[in-house]
Design brief:
The structure holds two protein chains of two kinds.
Chain A (H helix, E strand, L loop, with lengths): L2 H7 L7 H20 L1 H15 L2 H34 L7 H25 L24 H22 L7 H27 L22 H4 L6 E2 L2 E2 H5 L3 H7 L6 H8 L5
Chain B lengths: L8 H30 L14 E2 L3 H23 L3 H4 L3 H25 L19 H22 L6 H25 L23 H8 L7 E2 L6
Parallel strand pairs in B: 1-2
Helix pairs in contact in B: 2-4, 2-5, 4-6, 5-6, 5-7
Classes of the chains: A mainly alpha, B mainly alpha.
């Protein structure tokens, strides 16, 4: 993530000509500074850039920080979950590489979002919360592999819905939107893999995609993760009527978003 | 910022237009050869210009871009289900191919309906490079199409102006990613290919592709010339 690149994409969210002028002239100044010494400019960024941005852009930045800190909270949860699972030795040997790869991605997301929030947007990245993956003693993911897989699926499918729900909230910033979309599809790949792995092991009969709002064999407490996935109305059109394709397949073909409150409600089960 | 005041958009568009015209003339040449080769009666027909499609501009242009890709995917899976690979596939792979055919057909029909009179015409496809009797040939092509779809939606998102359209794209792209992971796992079961380093970088971000990169890749299978010169840049 290149700061100057990000600045280029920032919109002076104002119709006031003077404020626009101020934004562009200051951005240009940072470009010139960057030309003189990129390294120095990057180091000076948190102090320099924020005081120079017009207040309208600051407000925009604050909302980006809020969204990205929310995403960062979820990435902390996912990373810690996989790291603890790997450390506990609960994962079948044959599947180790899969979960190490997923762990690596979640750690990369933690580091990336921390960097963007802290060093590009000049905010305070959220610290890792304390997690209780037993959800008050209800689950044993680090001693029981099927439970580990079940919660992994729950977290990945939640992650997909969470990022999808934020796309519209970061769309004014092309770089942040593109980064969020690029994480979103990675979470979807993870979800597909873990879902199919559970079925291959005979623990469920689900597919890589979500049919209706089915939780399969997951615990009833996970229903909120799948509620609303049975939607067949898109752009005001009932796609089953439009195509004659069965409702199961249509619901599989579109994933649905969750808003922040819904996601944090789900995640709160696992906060200590 | 959606509009860059400095970028010489006229030049970019002219370059794209030129590319389109070159492609268009290739198709015309090919059509001419075809007619020389097979038309031995006395009818004198004017050389037929192969009709291209114009995606259009703004969000409509991007929806047409998505519609073009969904047409390609839907046509591919429809062909898969007629071939020897599918006839002899395992129960798991039959189920996956059957699902993907329905999902992509649903996406295609949805975009067609959503675009209404602004929708591009049906594209002509050429799958002669794919052997539909051969499992590896089919799965490798499926991998190409699904990965391409994900990268296309991820790259197009930043150009979409309407939050409603962006959400629709978001609802579809994660399903394409689920498909891509499953296909990759069929090709190399139990490996880390489902989310491989070839498409995901050190920051854990999946690759994005531009309109031009995606349509260049698609042009290996789509014979109808696609003019994307009015898409946002």
């Amino acid at each position: 993530m290149n700061l100057l690149n990000l600045l280029d994409k920032m919109c002076p969210d104002t119709k006031n000509a003077d404020e626009k002028e101020l934004f562009f002239s200051r951005r240009e100044a940072f470009h010139r500074f960057g030309d003189m010494s990129k390294k120095m400019a990057m180091a000076a960024v948190p102090l320099g850039i924020l005081s120079a941005l017009p207040k309208v852009a600051k407000a925009d930045t604050a909302s980006l920080i809020e969204v990205l800190n929310y995403a960062l909270t979820l990435e902390h949860l996912e990373y810690r979950y996989y790291q603890m699972g790997i450390d506990a030795g609960v994962i079948d040997g044959a599947d180790t590489a899969i979960f190490e790869k997923i762990r690596d991605h979640e750690l990369a997301h933690v580091n990336f979002l921390t960097e963007v929030v802290g060093n590009v947007l000049g905010g305070d990245p959220v610290m890792e919360p304390e997690f209780d993956f037993t959800a008050d003693g209800n689950f044993s993911p680090f001693t029981d592999y099927p439970t580990f897989l079940a919660l992994s699926q729950a977290f990945e499918d939640t992650g997909v819905r969470a990022y999808k729900g934020q796309a519209g909230n970061v769309m004014e910033n092309d770089v942040v939107l593109t980064a969020a979309l690029s994480i979103h599809s990675v979470e979807a790949r993870h979800a597909s893999m873990v879902r199919r792995l559970r079925t291959k092991k005979g623990q469920d009969s689900i597919k890589g995609w979500i049919t209706e709002d089915s939780i399969g064999t997951l615990p009833a407490a996970t229903q909120a993760i799948y509620s609303g996935e049975d939607n067949v109305m898109h752009g005001g059109v009932d796609v089953t009527q439009l195509t004659g394709i069965d409702s199961g397949a249509v619901t599989e073909g579109w994933d649905e978003p969750l808003n922040k409150d819904q996601v944090l409600g789900i995640a709160s089960l696992f906060l200590a | 910022m959606k509009k860059d005041l400095i970028k010489p958009q006229g030049l970019v568009k002219n370059a794209n237009r030129r590319k389109f015209l070159q492609k268009g003339s290739l198709s015309i040449a090919a059509a001419g050869l075809f007619m020389v080769g097979c038309n031995d009666d006395d009818d004198i027909m004017p050389p037929m210009e192969k009709e291209g499609v114009m995606l259009g501009s703004g969000d409509i242009g991007i929806l047409n871009y998505a519609y073009a890709l969904e047409q390609l995917e839907a046509a591919f899976y429809a062909t898969v289900m007629q071939g020897g690979y599918f006839a002899n596939a395992s129960a798991e792979e039959k189920e996956i191919m059957g699902d993907l055919e329905k999902h992509e057909r649903a996406h295609k029909e949805f975009f067609k309906a959503a675009l209404g009179s602004a929708a591009i015409e049906d594209l002509e496809v050429d799958f002669s490079a794919i052997n539909f009797d051969d499992r590896m040939s089919v799965l490798n092509a499926a991998k190409t199409f699904e990965d391409l779809g994900v990268a296309a939606y991820n790259g197009a998102g930043q150009h979409i102006q309407d939050a409603g359209y962006l959400l629709i794209a978001g609802k579809i792209v994660s399903v394409e990613a689920r498909h891509a992971a499953a296909i990759r796992d069929l090709l190399n079961p139990g490996s880390t290919d489902f989310a491989g380093d070839d498409i995901i970088d050190g920051n854990g971000l999946e690759r994005t592709l531009s309109f031009s990169e995606v349509l260049t890749a698609a042009s290996n299978y789509v014979t109808t010339p696609i003019d994307f010169s009015q898409l946002p840049s």
